[in-house]
Amino acid sequence: MMETLRRAFQRGIGKGPSRKEHDDDTQDQEVAFLRARVRELETKLAENDRGGGGDEPSTMAEDTMARSLRNLNASMESSVISSQEDYEDASYYARKGIFVKPGGQRRCRWRKTKGGKKELCAGGGARVRENTEEKVDAYALASPRLGRAMALCRSLTLDEGSLGPIASRFKDSGIPHVTLDAISRSYAGTAPTSAFILVQDEQSSARGLEKEDLVSNWESFTSRVVYGNDACYDMWRLKRGDLKGHNEFWKTLLSVHHIKKVYKALQQTLFEHGDVTPKRFIYHFVDAPKEVWHMYQLMDLKGKISIRIVQITPVLLRCSDGVTRFGYIREENAPVKYKGEVEHVMARTYSCWKYTGNALALFSPCGAMMQQNPEASALFGMDSAENSVYVDFDKKGEKPVDRLKLLFAGANEDLYDEMWESVMEKGEPWVTKMRLWPHNLRPEAAMVGDSSVSSSMWSSTSSREEEAMFGKARWFYVSVNKFNDPADGSVLMFLEMKDITEIEEAKIKYVEQRKQEHALLSSIIPEHIIQVLVEENREMQNSARSSSKSSKSMSSSSGELLDLSAMRMDTENRVRAVAESHEKVTVFFADIVGFTRISSNASPGDVMFMLNSLFTLLDDLCETHGVYKVETIGDAYMCVAGLQLKSELRRLSELGGMPDECGGMACPKWHASRMVAFSRGVLESCAGVQAAGEDKNITMRIGLHSGDVMSGVVGRKMPRFCLFGDTVNVASRMESTGRTGRVHASPATAALTDQLEWEPTGGVEVKGKGAMETFLLR
To answer: Is 440 in contact with 475 (CB distance < 8 Å)?
Structure first.
């Protein structure tokens, strides 16, 4: 009855949403008269409710009141509607079910009180605690029975002392304030609207409330049922008044994936974004026998299907114990907001199915394709039961070919069992990325129905062989879920596919480029520093992924690949992390004798060719002797033995012949001996390199010194791995004061290689050291 009253009221005065207000004085008088008439009727209706025990008024009384308002509407029509254009503009939104919030109320926002507690208030800080006439009218448009309950509670005051902890946060939010008694009277009987009330369980929410942090703790809140009308108990096949059974059933409903998702979205919208307006969604109700309702959690019901609307409205509820709690009124078969609402929503939903850019298809559990959208038709062919008169059956002609399983045939066979377990057994959506070949989408006619042959053949071939046999593969995001067929309640599997080939190929190219860049860095930076920077890069990616709540990075291995930016020493932590000290190493310096003369008389190309030929030979010798090349500066070549780098130790292990005395790989004598052997090889190799622009071969000076050094990476622009310390300086002086074609060593290096023949030089003057006795290798 109230629904008819509200519709007649809306037609009579244009009270509906998005209606333009008119300034005509006559219209204002008529509107005021009509509002008074509506209040009079509501008062009579409330009196009937008190005396009638919740039964509905007679149809004759309802028609009489509606007819009265229609007569008023006929007398007002010419003054309310100023032009046809105004009518079309004003009624467009109403026809779409777009209603204005009560009193122009904006979205609520969270604010902090003087005590630091967070509360919701209406936009602009306005206090709208009472059930004002305008608010009652607005809520009654979409929920006549709730509007009736609000009208019964117009005189209800909000006592802050009686507010529960959560309700106190919503006292200024503008949501309806009603009593449990008013709700019981308004929704009483077996009326078409079935409803029950959930209140937030304050005991389970206490921990979050003690922290005064409601927003970040809403996910831990639970709800309990405190009321259900007879229509609700009958609808869910529950015993009337059995609140314990109703709460158990509510827990069962929340275990269903899509219901849990909707409820979580509702909570998030409310507690994080402050949106307190009623929310609605359409669902399929399965009117199944009572004895199979225990199967609801498995979503495998069969029975009569109907399309219904759920409306969930946040309220402040005065309970029988006098405490006002925050909760929801959940109307399971709420009335439509406008004529044709359900049909319009279903038509739009089908249009989304039809025009989406993703491929969508429905399969029976046996793999028969039931329905497909145009994008899926382009992939699979028009082979669904909806599009094709006939479909392929197996050889025996007993059942259709399992097109869903064929989608996984070949390299993706293991994923089929994973998908089936997730979707059909656990009831959870399954999403992955798959590489599919043409035969997965459109199986060859010779293979249709011969699953044993196709399975064995496809599973035994590699991806490259499959591409050669069946054509080029493409990448897809694949999502599979299940639901109950609205036609008969049986289970259907919903497949969604999105072609991401271009994205994946770009990722593959990107990763390959990263690998090449990483390999280049590995050739110029020691492995232990690479590992430090890789770990830092991985931690940064994990931190970014956690903050953005993204599920996957671009590549599972991308965190282990470095680019040049990772080498920049732009933070103190990074500089300190890669710094290291090394004891008793042997440093090598060499340069070309007469390089200044050679470079001034030869072309740049000839000079660079000479240097490249020489340094390539020295690089090969480094690999042979297991020493680490540090850098080249002009014609100078620097390397070191004994840094104990992972790459150096691995190479020495491959070469074999490591000594057991003095610590094995850590033996300073062994490192000095290897460096002397390397130096001899350098002198022999340079004798085969012709000097640029001359008819003779080049000659070199070599200097060696042993001692302690520090290492690290320096610089933001062109960062380099460098050695530092007095040992490096002395080794450089040994080279600059050495003799052509000879190995010049300091006393420290000569002492570590005393098994070799050294001849003293009689002493040389070393900058910063003074006179130093040095030695030349015979």
So the answer is: no
